[in-house]
Request: fold
Amino acid sequence: MSSDLPFPLTNDQPQNCGDFSIFIDKYGRWFHEGQEIKRKKICKLFVSVLSRDTEGRYWLKTPVESGVIAVEDYPLVIASYTRESDGVLWVETSIGVRFPIGPNHPLDVYYDETTKTHFFTALYERGLVAKFSRASYYHLLEDAKVQENADGTLSVSLQSGDYLFNKCISL
Reply:
C-alpha cells in the first residue's frame, strides 16, 4: 500500500471527537459554530461521509475521526428534479447532490401534524433521507397520477423508470 495517503489504512475505529458543532437547518443549510457554510462543495464533501445510526444520530465519519452533528429536520432537501429520456426521475438537493428515484432510493410520503400538510421524502444512502422542498413537492404532484378514492383518501402513483411508487394517503 502507498504511504502517500493522508490517513493510515487500518481496521481501527475512527477516534470519536464528540460534537462537531455542525448544524443542518430545516432548509438544508449547513452551519459550523453558528456561521453558515456557504460553499456547496464543502457541504457535498460532508454529505459523502455523513451517516445516520439506528438511534437517529447523525455522524460525520472519516477514516481518522468521527463526530456527531445536529439536524433540525432532514439532512438533505430536494430542490428540484428532472425526468431523463429513459423515464427515470433524478432529484437534486439544495447543495447539488444528485441521485435517481428507484428501488435503491425509494419515495415515501408523510403527514406533518404541525403544518397539517403532506410531504415527500426519498431514501438517499447510509440511513440518510432527503425531504422534498415545498416547490419540488408540488412539482412532483403535477407529475404524479392522483386519484380520489371513495373513502376520501388519495391514491398517488409516480413512475421512475421501472420503479413505481404507489401510496394511499389520508386527507
